[in-house]
Write a structure and sequence with these properties.
By secondary structure, the protein is an alpha+beta fold. It contains 16 helices and 40 strands. Strands 9, 28, 29, 37, 38 and 39 form a 6-stranded antiparallel β-sheet that branches. A 5-stranded antiparallel β-sheet has the order 3-2-1-4-5. Helix 12 (684-693) packs across helix 14. The longest helix is centred in the middle third of the chain and has 17 residues, at 402-418. The two termini are 40 Å apart.
């Protein structure tokens, strides 16, 4: 590997000056193909004089990249990204479920060149967690040695650490927050008796443990709530393949109407009859009711007269009606056992109207017996409910397994949990819809939502089936015709067994042994070999905290209502159902390739999880970024950056509601804290990992406290030698064996760190250096931040009239980017996955 300087000449050509292997200074042109993606992203004026490293092959520079960065290949011109730049191509899914998954509808795009401008980094990414060798003598699993005696070959003592805030710290005092109205809270700063910022030792321990887990690739300490499958919304056309069904005597009875069960859609009329009911979210004047005017209820067994209708859609391109599908429409309905009466006359033809769908009566009327299925006015413009029935004399029965029952419960629970907060706030319908209400399976009949999670006799639903011999194989159950669908496996299924939380002392990984362990699945605990002492702020109180009120102190109750403080930007909630960001191509944690369909990118066997969630340091922020935070500069660009941490005003007014929080103050950058770390009986490698974390290279930071996605909480840790004393058990024996002062020197941190590095390299590196091991490279990138100076913020979409950099939307709307990322156009989908952290070259603004 060699180093050199880039030169941009007057013709704007990129050249490189370096000392070649013969010791001669040379200057030569650099072929575009040999420039790393990180270099191509930079403006030409920033390239002139840029120090780079490269491989010298035959006297020529190859793989030219910024110093200390991996080479990221590209398929794009400077400033533009291919969907697969810098990523290994991943094989297409071998899953055969083409029909319902709809993969045949999308083109394969293994080397898609989308020419999207790279614009931002996502606030979170992942440190890979590859499968572990649990038998490794140092990084594997074994019982802890205990605390009862100081072992000669293990280390005990104290490490004094200074922590310096690099970006503002948020230390909210949640116990004393004030509700200022509109479900909005104002948080005071947590302070001690002297008015200085107070940090509990457990918070420091939590920060260090997370980092220690990552760099030793230990087991996850906790992994709760991930044993159930997640769900995604199926494509509209996929709902046509679903067959109405009813649970009868513990089995599933298929009710395909008058049609034969088809593959893509019914071979004849739609399976269920349409029951007119709604207009713009309300009960229509034309709703079909029982003879006494009562509306049919969900689950009612009924007799009906139905007529056959031909639906014609209006084609705006050809300005004409196109024949679409047929369905049965209910003309008259009575509860079974009541007299239905004579066959009514068919409806008159309403005639075609331009720009409108056309429902043509075909003159065929017949009697049916079935069951009313009410799902509520759950989408705008919905006008009909359904009657499930079968005209066949032979019943189509399918067995229900325990797994079908569990999957049904999981799917309904997924729906209910997704909307629980909106319902708690009193929302009567999904916020994005205007003329609708919540689906029955979300709120339940008479608000009995829990009953919807149970498959029992009388349950009406939709089934995905495939023919198997003379019978049917059940592939899935759904509450509505266009439903969410469960992924094939749960997140826990993709986490290698060697990484799952320990369930016994024999399974304790390095982080468990050092920081402690509590069995998440039963009895058992271990207190660990490390303890954090009190955390002391050594910066004067008047310089440690910046206040956002006129009184320059914490405010409570009425005072806080009058001056709530700084309104923070909305923090995104974890959404592991976004499989493009959370699911890895393999158990090693690497990103999936771009352009996969939603189903191909989902949770399926033979894949893995991306790893441990982290929030990279916000590197390269412009001068004054944290100054005057109460001033709303969110819509003003500064060198490609916007004021991301503050919520924008809307129509000139501050936005304070249940989506965000306000803070009374923050801990200023430059504020210093000190604390002691006490260790007992740790091995050389265990201690070396801790010492490495406490002495990261210059420009690398840990993340601490709240608001990390917004850039808060970057801290620098440094060891204070004057307060540090670590000895082996043998050393302590010598010290306590003499009544006189001993000249015994404390252990060498450098030697212990080297032992840790060698253990990682031998266990995971192969021929790679320590810094090139996947989880170490990713951790270092997290700690240093992205070097390309792209801003870091939540994804956001471009409005139709917007050009150039896109400021934060006053109403948030991060979801719009994810909608555009899944939008199918010309039989392909953008499908950007979250890049690998160590090679993250950014994401585009969409569309």
């Amino acid at each position: 590997m060699a180093k050199g300087l880039l030169i941009v000449n007057v013709k704007k050509q990129i050249r490189i000056k370096f000392i070649n292997s013969k010791g001669k200074e040379v200057e030569t042109a650099v072929p575009e193909a040999e420039l790393s993606a990180q270099v191509k992203q930079k403006p030409l004026e920033q390239l002139n004089g840029l120090e780079v490293e490269f491989d010298e092959v035959g006297g020529q520079p190859k793989k030219v990249r910024p110093v200390g960065e991996p080479f990221v290949g590209s398929y794009f011109s400077p400033g533009l990204i291919s969907g697969d730049a810098g990523r290994e191509a991943q094989p297409r899914s071998r899953n055969p479920e083409q029909r319902l998954r709809g993969q045949s509808k999308l083109q394969s795009v293994p080397n898609r060149a989308s020419s999207q401008v790279l614009s931002f980094h996502n606030p979170y990414n992942f440190v890979p967690a590859p499968p572990r060798d649990t038998g490794h003598p140092e990084l594997g699993d074994h019982r802890p040695v205990g605390h009862h005696v100081l072992f000669p070959d293990r280390y005990t003592g104290v490490i004094r650490v200074k922590m310096t805030a690099v970006t503002p710290l948020l230390l909210p005092d949640a116990a004393n927050a004030t509700n200022t109205g509109n479900e909005h809270k104002s948080f005071p700063v947590r302070v001690d008796a002297d008015g200085k910022p107070y940090i509990p030792p457990t918070s420091i321990k939590g920060m260090l443990r997370s980092a220690y887990e990552a760099v030793t690739n230990s087991r996850f300490a906790v992994f709760p709530g991930h044993d159930r499958k997640l769900a995604y919304r199926m494509a509209t056309q996929q709902g046509l393949a679903l067959v109405p069904a009813r649970v009868t005597n513990g089995q599933l009875e298929l009710l395909p109407g008058t049609s034969t069960i088809g593959h893509e859609r019914p071979d004849e009329p739609m399976y269920a009859a349409w029951l007119p009911r709604y207009h713009r979210g309300k009960i229509s004047n034309n709703a079909v009711c029982y003879p006494k005017g009562e509306l049919p209820k969900h689950g009612d067994e009924v007799d009906c007269w139905v007529e056959l209708i031909q639906h014609w859609r209006w084609d705006s391109k050809s300005k004409s009606h196109k024949q679409d599908f047929r369905y049965w429409r209910v003309l008259k309905i009575v509860p079974t056992g009541k007299k239905l009466g004579p066959k009514p006359a068919a409806s008159s033809d309403p005639s075609k109207r331009d720009s409108q769908s056309y429902h043509q009566p075909l003159g065929e009327v017949r009697e049916i017996r079935g069951f009313v299925c009410i799902t509520n006015a759950n989408i705008d413009r919905k006008h009909d409910e359904r009657v499930f029935f079968s005209a066949s004399k032979e019943s189509h029965m399918v067995q229900l397994s325990d797994q079908h029952h569990r999957d049904w419960e999981t799917l309904i629970l997924n729906y209910q949990q997704e909307h629980a907060e909106e319902i708690r706030r009193g929302e009567k319908s999904p916020p994005a819809l205007k003329h609708s209400e919540w689906s029955r399976h979300i709120v339940g009949i008479n608000n009995n939502a829990s009953a919807e999670r149970e498959l029992r006799d009388g349950t009406l639903l939709y089934a995905w089936v495939e023919q198997e011999g003379s019978g049917w194989r059940l592939r899935g159950l759904f509450p509505v015709n266009i439903s969410r669908k469960l992924y094939d496996v749960a997140p826990l299924d993709l986490l290698d067994c060697s990484l799952r939380p320990a369930t016994s002392l024999d399974q304790l990984s390095p982080a468990d042994r050092v920081f402690g362990w509590v069995n998440q699945r039963g009895h058992g605990a271990y207190k660990g070999q490390l303890r954090i002492g009190p955390v002391t702020c050594i910066t004067p109180a008047d310089r440690a905290i910046e206040w956002f009120n006129s009184k320059k102190r914490n405010l409570y109750d009425e005072e806080a209502k009058s001056e709530p403080g700084l309104p923070l930007a909305i923090l995104g909630q974890p959404k592991p159902q976004q499989a493009r960001f959370y699911v890895a191509a393999s158990p090693n944690g690497e990103a999936q390739r771009d352009g996969l369909s939603k189903e191909e990118a989902g949770y399926s066997p033979d894949k893995g999880l991306r790893g441990r969630k982290v929030y990279p340091h916000h590197r390269g922020l412009p001068p004054g970024y944290w100054d005057d935070p109460m001033e709303d500069r969110t819509q003003t660009e500064q060198n490609g950056y916007f004021q991301e941490y503050r919520r924008p005003r809307l129509n000139g007014k501050e936005q304070r509601d249940n989506q965000n929080r306000s803070i009374q103050g923050w801990v200023r950058p430059g504020t210093e804290f000190v604390f002691d770390i006490h260790v007992t009986n740790v091995s050389a490698v265990e201690l070396g990992a801790l010492l490495w974390l406490l002495s990261l290279p210059e420009g690398h930071y840990h993340r601490f406290g709240g608001g990390k996605p917004l850039g808060f909480g970057s801290v620098r840790l440094e060891i204070d030698p004057s307060g540090t004393a670590i000895y082996s058990g043998e050393g302590w024996r010598q010290i306590y064996s003499s009544l006189e002062e001993t000249s015994l020197k404390s252990v060498s941190p450098e030697a212990l760190v080297q032992e840790f590095k060698e253990a990682v390299r031998s266990a995971y590196g192969g021929e790679r250096r320590f810094e090139e091991v996947s989880f170490i490279a990713a951790f270092l990138r997290m700690a240093s931040g992205h070097p390309d100076r792209l801003p870091t913020h939540y994804p956001r979409a471009r409005e139709a009239i917007q050009q150039g950099p896109i400021p934060p939307h006053p109403e948030g709307r991060a979801y719009e980017w994810f909608v555009e990322n899944e939008r199918v156009k010309n039989r392909s989908v953008p499908g950007f996955s979250l890049p690998d952290l160590a090679k993250d070259i950014g994401l585009p603004i969409l569309p």
